[in-house]
User: Fold this.
Amino acid sequence: MKYVKWIFSAFLALGVFSAQAAQPAADETEIYYDSSVFYENLAKAALQSSEMSICANTPIPSGWIVSFIATGCSGLGKYTIRQLDTSYLEMTMCAVQPIPVGWIVSAVQGTCQGIPQYVIRPVNPNFLEMQMCNVPSAQVPAGWVVKDIAQGCNLVGYGRWTISPANPGFIEMSVCAVAQLPPKWVVVSTVAGCYGAGRWTIRYVP
Assistant:
């Protein structure tokens, strides 16, 4: 019996048995599972994601574009939406919403389930000119004018427009009469041109 007591005492000294529940060391982190925290973080991650899927009858959030259309949502259709990012030179969008402000369509290519697909790019104020496609809902960027028009962009008629910032440093500018003039610019003369649209000579009035 004394040998059994001696062995038990040795085990206690070595920590094999303990009369108290084991406690985590001071430098250990206690890990536990909390489902509410998990789903809360999952929702936050979805909000912070630059791409997600929504049902087609859901309003498209501001600053997002539809990049893909698929079936789903009980026949309503499903959209893949992406957050606009001006760090990209170009992005693609489906023509189910207006062109975002500050962006222009640079090409029309392919379809999204039969709906035209646009290549869009952010307006760069440092460029002397840019090429844009005059698709439905397209708008000339604020402070820009149309210098010339031509055929292109897979559109009927003269759908490719060359646009340029309206530079007050110029005494006058020659533009196509197809878009509204920027503030403080006036038409001083008109001539034929721009394939029937007419051409204006405009001047900045401080």
Q: What stands out?
A: The first helix runs from residue 2 to 14. The longest strand covers residues 103-112. The CA atoms of residues 12 and 18 lie 6 Å apart.
